[in-house]
Inverse folding.
């Protein structure tokens, strides 16, 4: 009889990493910006004020429900920085410039991590599971995390393929809409897709993410 722990069939990356709450929260200030910009007669100030009000409301609600202050404040800081950029340039579409740059940097970082055999998906899951870097000593897990990380690279590339043309065309409302469509729904698809790739990449006898087979 094998003493290796059975693979948990019910566990998924979504259950380990979450992400739904933060992804939904991230879409609300851009929606506020788009609405404020439109109602204010295509005014950057109108969009900025609306986005900041929504951002503060979301942060206040999260803090009142005892969510981690650091993640809440980071989200609010991102809204403030995006608003500052738009006010500085006077171009409403620049409110979304930070998101564009962030996705480009993320695509590059995830690609480099795969090439140097430190796939970020493994790093993040390893931290969540308290494994530190033990997963890297399991060749099957290392290979699976590398393949799964490519799904995340494609997520960022897809956003860039949509955001860049809209940004260059100065399509504010389309950018706000794309930000919604390509946030939580895309994150959910990415979590499901990368989990499917990992499960397909691991051999049937492998005990699962929580149990690296150390070599």
């Amino acid at each position: 009889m094998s003493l290796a722990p059975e693979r948990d069939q019910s566990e998924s990356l979504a259950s380990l990493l979450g992400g739904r709450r933060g992804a939904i929260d991230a879409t609300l200030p851009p929606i506020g910006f788009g609405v404020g910009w439109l109602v204010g007669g295509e005014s950057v100030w109108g969009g900025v004020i609306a986005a900041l009000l929504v951002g503060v409301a979301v942060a206040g609600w999260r803090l009142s429900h005892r969510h981690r202050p650091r993640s809440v404040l980071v989200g609010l800081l991102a809204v403030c920085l995006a608003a500052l950029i738009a006010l500085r340039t006077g171009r409403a579409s620049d409110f979304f410039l930070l998101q564009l740059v962030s996705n480009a940097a993320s695509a590059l970082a995830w690609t480099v991590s795969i090439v140097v055999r430190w796939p970020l998906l493994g790093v993040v899951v390893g931290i969540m599971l308290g494994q530190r870097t033990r997963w890297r000593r399991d060749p099957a897990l290392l290979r699976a995390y590398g393949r799964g990380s490519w799904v995340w690279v494609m997520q960022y590339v897809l956003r860039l393929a949509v955001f860049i043309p809209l940004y260059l065309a100065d399509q504010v409302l389309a950018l706000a809409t794309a930000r919604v469509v390509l946030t939580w729904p895309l994150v959910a698809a990415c979590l499901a897709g990368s989990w499917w790739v990992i499960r397909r990449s691991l051999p049937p006898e492998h005990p699962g993410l929580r149990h690296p087979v150390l070599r």
